[in-house]
Amino acid sequence: MNRFYVLIGSNIDPNDNVKKGLNYLNQSDSIDVEAVSSEFISKPVGMEGSDFINIALRCSTNLEFVETNILLKEIEAMCGRERDPKNKFTPRTLDLDIICWNNFEGIIEGYKLPDPDIEKYDYIKVPLAEVKL
Asked: According to the model, what pLDDT value does residue 89 have?
């Protein structure tokens, strides 16, 4: 069993899209959502736009990292997420990012884990502290 933490973020209809993303995760047979933080409201970093709602989740799964990440990106797409390959700093309907995977430290499939931004930004650090074991 793999334990991991996800940061949810949205600044386009965030109340609806965060709820929708959580519902899809809770309906998944592959991911068990064990804990949900309270909402953390933050200003956008590196872009213009509305405030973000951020939530951290503690989850478990029998899937491997790559399969889990694919499932999260599919849920983002179901919530209307469109990625701009030339600019990652754009408003978004839903962002589901794995920020910690088990106790792994290093790089998996191009992702540095734990996410180095955890210590930089309160919008990650504060909600994660609520759910982290």
From this structure: 60
